[in-house]
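W.,

You were right to be curious about this one. When I first looked at the sequence I had no strong expectations either way, so I just let the prediction run and decided to look at it fresh. Below is the sequence, 382 residues in total, followed by the output.
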Amino acid sequence: MKISKLAKVAALALAFGLVAGTPAYAVDLQGSGASFPALLIEGCKAGFAANTSHTYVYASSSSGTGQANSDKSIGDFWMSDGAYTATTKRASLIHVPLVAAPIALLHNLPGSKTLNLSAETVAGIFGGKITRWNDPAIQADNNRSTLKTVYKLDANGNPRKDSKGYPIVLRTQTVISRYTLPNQPIHVIYRSDSSGTTENFTNYLNKSAPSVWTKAKGKVFKDGFPGNINDIGNLGRIIGAASSSGVSQLSGKTPYSITYAEVNYAAANKLKIANLINPAGSSVVPDSTGVGAFLASAKQDANGYLTYDYATKEKGAYPLGIVSYLLADTDYPDKTKAAAVKAFANYILSSKCAKDVGGPLGFSVIDGDLLKKSLAQVAKIG
């Protein structure tokens, strides 16, 4: 009799364990917002479903749309490339640094040489002060000595990192570049819609070259332009287009143009990717290693917002690395849905998504101290 009762108890415990490890039912999540992380979110959809039985759809548009939808609780989660601080933000909404990637400078110059640009030169180009490709400032950036950082690698060929998430430098080497730029007008293509990518880009310009880009960061490029964008010299030369895909497609059709967008838009539009010259004097590629080196110095407040150190002397830091925030609720009316959003966040941060899917797409892995901070924010979702 006792054996029979024990067997029943064991069977019940086993059944309960199976139920506890598997969702009571699959949850279909609805997300919307920034276009910047869209390729990663879409790429991890199948893996998320296989690992959790939950599903999601993500409507990629802009950070502004994600923020507006979060105000009205349209959907279940929202993405924003910039911190959302409007007075309309619900008190229960938190920021989770979820996706990391570089903003790349994509250009349509002929030839195979790598274009190097300093912060002051980038600000001058996008601010309308540097108008031709053979301008002395661009010539100076591309006919000089810069540093190249070589990192220690693990058995899989990935950079080794210390406990704080900084890649471990093996050595630096001096590279001398020579590039004769064409005597052609620069066609600047900017984001015309409200964009977190633009907010981060203009923040970089203002913090890194304040004497050239004199206005503070802004979601709308025209509003933050340090001068008169409708000046006769800018008309037809500085042109707007909506979304990352829009600016990339237009730049791909416009010889001698330059724009800013995610790295993965370059190949599809036959654009080339410029290197940035960082404060340490290194010419840095917009890749996951450079982004990781830059983000390791970021500071995070209690709301989850990150403050970037654009003056970091980390040799391999790519100073146009950004994170896209998950906007999620700490007080969902439906707790089963809250658990599914938490599972979504954990999966996107996992190596199965961030590394295995994101790496080939040009995204960076959030790790080290920043990962700990992100996971602490995820734990608040409920």
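Here's what jumped out at me. Residues 78 and 152 are 37 Å apart (CA to CA). And, maybe more interesting for your project: The chain has a mean pLDDT of 90.

Coffee later to discuss?

I.
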